[in-house]
Amino acid sequence: MTITLARRTAAEFLGSFLLTATVVGSGILASRLANGNDAVALLGNTAATGAMLFVLITALGPISGAHFNPAVTLIMALKRELSAMEAAAYAVAQVIGCIFGAWLAHFMFELPLLQTSTHVRAGLPQVASEAAATFALVFTILFVSRWRAGAVPAAVALVITSGYWWTASTSFANPAITVARALSDTFAGVRPEDVPGFIAGQLAGALLAWGAAIGLLPREQHT
Questions:
Q1: 13-38 burial by CB neighbour count: b if 16+ within 10 A, else e?
Q2: Residue ranges per structural domain of the chain
Q3: Surface-to-core class of residue 63, CB atoms within 10 Å of its CB (0-12 exposed, 13-18 middle, 19+ buried)
C-alpha cells in the first residue's frame, strides 16, 4: 500500500508534537515534584520520554518511518529511502510539531506560551555529547533495523533512555526538538545561543553513524 506524502508528513508532525510535549511536560512536572533534586527530576523525565518513544514509533512507524528527527531524516535521504522533497517536508513537519508540542506543555502547566530558555548548555563537551548521543541513536536505527526490524521501537526507546544518563547534554540527539527546547525556559530547555553547537554535533554524529553502517553492514543495505 502506497501512503501519500501528506499522510506521512502528518504522521511526522503528530509524532514530533507528542514527543516534545512529553519531554517538556514531564520535565516541568518532574522538577516541580522533585523538590530541587535534579537526579529525581531527570529520572522522571527519562522514564516518560522512553515510554512515549516506544509507543510513537510502534504506532506511526508503519506510516512514515517514525523519524521525528531531521538528523534521522537526513540519513534516510542519503540512503535514498526519501527524495530531497520528501526529506524537506519531513523536516519542516518535525520542527513545527516540536514547537507546538512545547507550547502544549506550557499551556497544560499554566506557563507563558512564548518563552526563551536560559538553561546554559555551552561548550565543546556539550557538543561532543550531542554528537555521541546522535551517533548512538542513528547507529541503533540502522543496525537494529537491519537485523531485527521489529525491535526498533524498543531499541530506540532504550538508547534515548540511556542517553539521558551517560551523556553530559542528556541526549537531545534531535535538531527539531533542540529548536523547540530553546523556546521553553523549563527543566528541559537550552539557551538559543547554544543551539547551533548542539545541531552541529547532532548532524556530525548522524553522519558518523551512517559511515559506520556503510563500513560494517552488508553492501545491499545501502543501495
A1: bbbbbbbbbbbbbbbbbbbeebeeee
A2: 5-215
A3: middle
Q: How far apart are CA 155 and CA 50, in angstroms?
A: 10
**Prediction pTM value:** 0.95
CB atoms within 10 A of CB 148: 11
Cβ atoms of 71 and 203 closer than 8 Å = yes
Which CATH number applies to 5-215? 1.20.1080.10
Residue 81 corresponds to which amino acid? E
CA torsion sign for 45, 13, 186, 141 is positive
Mean pLDDT of 186-193: 96
Task: Please check the confidence at residue 138 and state whether its pLDDT lies above 50.
Answer: yes
Q: Which of 96, 84, 14 is nearest to 52 (CA)?
A: 14
111 CB contacts (<8 Å, ≥6 apart)?
28, 105, 186
